[in-house]
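Reply to dn_fold:

You asked what the input looked like. This is it:
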Amino acid sequence: MSDDKILKVDLDALPISKETIQKVVDPSAEIIGETAATLIEAISHAAFDRVKKFNIVRREDIKDFQRRIEEKNANIPIENQDNKKLGLTLKALDASVYQLDEEVMRELFANLISKTVDKRFNNEILPIFPTLLSNMSIQEAKILKALATKRKLLPIAKIVASTANEQTSLSGIDYDKSSTELNQALSSFDKILNAKSIELTDDIILFQNSHWDGYSSYISALQASGLITKDQTNELPDSKSRQSYQNFQKSVTFESYYSLENSPIKSEGLLFKYPKLVKGSIKLTALGRQFISVVL
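and this is what came back:
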């Protein structure tokens, strides 16, 4: 079956005039302006009517969504207009139905839809993109925006309580001390190597002068979507990330856990009394990089 036939079936299923169908299936037709607006209006009848009756989508939000798409389409140069991906256009419009109450999501969907008719971008759009966006929360979108502006990766950390004070190190041991004192010091270091820990917080996203708490489930959702990966065992080595880790360890949030030394957590016969920062990172996958290049 040819692409034209597939597209014709999709369009015939919508309440679109024959004149509009002829315009959009004609490879030489202009696909921005009135035609784009008519397609959106048609989808509004076919898809938005399902939720308008329950007042799930406000008319003001639909109008704002249409305006955003039309403005973006109007900025596509004539030579870059391309109607070969209108199937993706319709899929993205339909997927947007339940996300129009949030301005952030209207903007992301408008970016996606406008790029389906722009040949500079539409070859980068995978069929899964509308689905990914339709299942996305504004918090997930916020993380992706941060990753897009922070070299495609971000430092993260979680606070744990340890059974040993890990500020001790072999470099701090005075080897000129008596054998008894030296054995005590080495014993302390051995406790560090065999220390147990329990988690006190979920993942926290770090910036140089701030942090985002409560985003762990959104990180997991982005992982499940294949848009990011998480490394909880290795810290980022660059100077800005190191500064972010250090600043967080000086924050009120982290320092509040020092009270554990006086009121340790007791579990399985052990005392967890020393707060520790477990450093890691999140970064965009290849799919994630391709996705944000389209929707942001």
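The mean pLDDT is 79.
Hope that clears it up.
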